[in-house]
Write a structure and sequence with these properties.
Elements (H helix, E strand, L loop, with lengths): L1 H28 L13 H10 L6 H13 L14 H36 L4 H15 L2 H15 L15 H27 L2 H8 L4 H29 L3 H6 L5 H10 L3 H29 L9
Length: 307
């Protein structure tokens, strides 16, 4: 187990370094300049700015310098947001995105797993068909549509929450509900398919023949194996939700990481894009490692090796 974790951590560090390097290189080689909006800027001023920010150095020197800054958590300044370092941007946006994404993840689990389990236990019946229709609708409806509808009902009509902004302690509710409902639909479908297959397995039929209750069969015998495919989805889902959603954050006007991610790409803010891409890569690596460990704990036949 220890060798496996160390091996995965080393591989994860290489992945993070590759993501940071490729992000920086692709943005550096793309057309345009971080200072392109300053059209009236004299050429000598642009040359001076490039020298100040190190953009006059060879590309490999720029990449290496930014890799060292990321490794030491001492990120450089933003090219577009004057006076802001990448540390400041992440520190300002991460609590918002983490709160909204974390609560959305819990909503997805709280709604999706019971709904999928009920559908699997009532396969072919009205409950199964109703839940699957709702899940399919949830998968198909984008957050750009669902978010305004939720804001219209709960904010503008019922006046329970703010329609937008990050002012009160409950402003996470509507954006989290938007992301959570969409994610719950996919969780319900995966839970239903995995649990339905497990309920038809030989060991489950044996347990049922011995007189075990249906509840005990589902919880103790079927669900442990049924949730293995679901876990593979939950790792990237958690990282994606915590990393910030540009659409949802835009709909509800949230100061999270999502808008900085898109803004850095549009305005060629190399350092911000590098920092946010590296943060997202770290989340992916961490949650994938966590999923592997949980899968090995649920299924003893899975052996964690460093291969």
């Amino acid at each position: 187990m220890i060798r496996f974790i160390i091996s995965r951590l080393v591989q994860g560090l290489l992945v993070v370094a590759a993501v940071i390097s490729l992000t920086y290189v692709m943005m550096a080689l793309s057309p345009g300049s971080p200072f392109a909006k300053d059209r009236d800027m004299p050429p000598y001023v642009k040359e001076s700015l490039n020298k100040i920010y190190g953009l006059d150095k060879p590309l490999y020197v720029q990449v290496w310098r930014n890799l060292k800054s990321f490794a030491t958590l001492d990120f450089p300044v933003s090219y577009r947001l004057k006076g802001w370092t990448v540390n400041d941007i992440i520190a300002q946006g991460a609590p918002v995105s983490f709160t909204v994404g974390g609560m959305a993840f819990l909503i997805a689990l709280a709604l999706g797993i019971p709904a999928g389990a009920l559908a699997a236990m009532r396969a072919g019946q009205l409950q199964d068909r109703s839940i699957m229709v709702a899940a399919t609708l949830g998968v198909c409806v984008p957050s750009l549509v669902l978010g305004p509808v939720i804001a219209l009902v709960f904010a503008l009509r019922l006046h329970w929450f703010n329609a937008a902004g990050w002012y009160d302690a409950d402003d996470w509710v509507l954006p989290s509900l938007t992301l959570g409902l969409i994610s719950a639909a996919a969780v319900a479908r995966l839970t239903r398919s995995g649990l339905r297959e497990s309920l038809l397995a030989d060991h489950v039929r044996t347990a049922r023949a011995k007189g075990a209750s249906e509840w005990m069969i589902v919880v103790r015998h079927a669900f442990r194996l049924a949730c293995l495919p679901l876990l593979n989805y939950l790792g990237p889902l958690a990282a994606g939700l915590l990393g910030g959603s540009f659409v949802t954050e835009t709909v509800f006007n949230l100061p999270g990481l999502g808008r900085h991610f898109i803004s850095s790409a549009l305005h060629k803010d190399f350092t911000v894009a590098m920092g946010l891409a590296g943060l997202f890569a770290v989340l992916i690596v961490f949650f994938n490692l966590l999923v592997d460990i949980v899968q090995a704990w649920l299924n003893p036949r899975i052996r964690l090796t460093d291969s």
